[in-house]
Write a structure and sequence with these properties.
406 residues; alpha+beta; Beta Polymerase, domain 2; two-stranded antiparallel sheet; elongated; nucleotide binding; metal-binding; nucleotide-binding
Length: 406
């Protein structure tokens, strides 16, 4: 019999439910990942106990989704979602069931799930419950819907993207009926919120196979995400290189959108409700990655001064992945020089300059555009010649600039 190492806290929840006369199993992704030898992120539990019965058995619970039968049980400062076996009613909007009916049948509960590899349950007492061939599909490395594919995608259209996302995360292929249903049901994606779509696309891009974003276009899904997202597919190339980027959200989105104009990349990310930090970082990388940085310290300091240190390093990494070979030798020198600049403590931030706006005002300069222009000129001097970053030299230069303006 297959043995899964269930965490002690989850075991205790299952045993306590069993002691009170109820069935209970770990279910879904944790079973799938355990069978694949991967570390599960969450351990979800399914049970024949109704939510109010779960709350009677355990002292510390939170009503996280009680209308759908889910109660979170708190043990050792960890939360475990415990959900009653259920049958979903009709899905009128292609997103949510109109009603939820609790059932005493584990099989009925597993039947409503999306893919066979996510429709397995396990307990030490009963072993693996696999009514739909999930274990075999794991061995075949296949994503296949539970039952009728068209029904599963009609119930919740987001499953269309989830199928592609799982194929990217697990390096599995789409079973033929499932793939055909994806193409047929793609228009239903128009019913799904942009936030939910974005979460799936981000997980896909952060997977081991982000190049499978191409499947979103190949299967006709892109037009129902947004018109601008669809247009980006026309410029999509060398998608396999995206996987060479670090596992950072803004890096992977930038890799995907790098052929777009910066304003178009921003529009796509805003439509998908990405956070402002990711949008800003992606816009910066998309704007600058084609720019060759001269192997010259003053020029490098100028580029570094316009970016955070982390984003400058991201830019160099991005260029290593996507820029053509003739530039790569130069890029190695740029990286070496930038490290030397940091080690030397050269001033590359206005705030680190030896003269501040306050000191210029104390010397009699009025605040305003003129003072801003003087500060900027002083900063340019320091970027070109870091040895000039001393108060006496810069104050004299400021006086000279003011005389020029008089």
């Amino acid at each position: 019999m297959i043995k899964i190492q269930v965490p002690d806290a989850a075991k205790r929840i299952i045993e306590q439910l069993n002691t009170n006369g109820f069935e209970a199993y770990v279910v879904g992704g944790c079973v799938r990942d355990s069978l694949l030898g991967r570390m599960p992120e969450d351990w979800d539990i399914t049970t024949s106990a109704k939510p109010e019965q779960v709350k009677e058995i355990f002292k510390r619970t939170v009503d996280t989704g009680i209308q759908h039968g889910t109660v979170t049980v708190l043990i050792d400062h960890e939360g475990y979602e415990v959900t009653t076996y259920r049958i979903d009613g009709e899905y009128e909007d292609g997103r949510h069931p109109k009603s939820v009916e609790f059932t005493g049948s584990l099989l009925e509960d597993l039947k409503r799930r999306d893919f066979t590899i996510n429709a397995m349950a396990y307990s030490d007492r009963e072993g693996l419950v696999d009514a739909f061939g999930g274990e075999m599909d794991l061995e075949r490395r296949t994503i296949r819907c539970v039952g009728n594919s068209l029904d599963r995608f009609t119930e919740d259209a987001l499953r269309i993207l989830r199928a592609i996302r799982f194929s990217a995360q697990l390096d599995f292929t789409l079973e033929e009926d499932t793939r055909a249903a994806i193409s047929l049901m793609a228009p239903n994606m128009g019913k799904v919120s942009k936030e939910r779509i974005q979460v799936e696309l981000t997980k896909l891009l952060l997977s081991g196979h982000p190049e499978r974003i191409k499947a979103v276009y190949d299967n006709g899904i892109a037009p129902y995400i947004s018109p601008h997202f669809k247009e980006a597919g026309r410029r999509l190339k060398e998608t396999e290189k995206i996987g060479n980027l670090p596992l950072k959200k803004h890096m992977r989105w930038s890799g995907f959108l790098r052929q777009e104009e910066p304003q178009d990349a921003v529009r796509i990310l805003k439509e998908l409700k990405l956070d402002n930090d990711t949008i800003h970082q992606t816009k910066t990388l998309v704007s600058f990655w084609k720019m060759e940085i001269p192997a010259d310290k003053p020029a490098i300091r100028h580029v570094m001064s316009g970016l955070s240190q982390e984003l400058f390093e991201d830019l160099l990494c991005f260029q290593k992945v996507f820029c053509p070979n003739p530039y790569q030798a130069q890029l190695t020198v740029v990286e070496q020089f930038s490290e030397e600049i940091l080690r030397a403590g050269d001033c590359i931030r206005l705030k680190d300059m030896a003269v501040t706006g306050r000191e210029l005002m104390d010397a009699g300069m009025k605040p305003g555009p003129e003072m801003g222009a003087v500060l900027n000129r002083l900063f340019q001097i320091v970027l070109n010649r870091p040895e000039c970053n001393n108060r006496e030299y810069l104050m004299k230069s400021a006086e000279h600039f003011l005389e020029e303006q008089a």
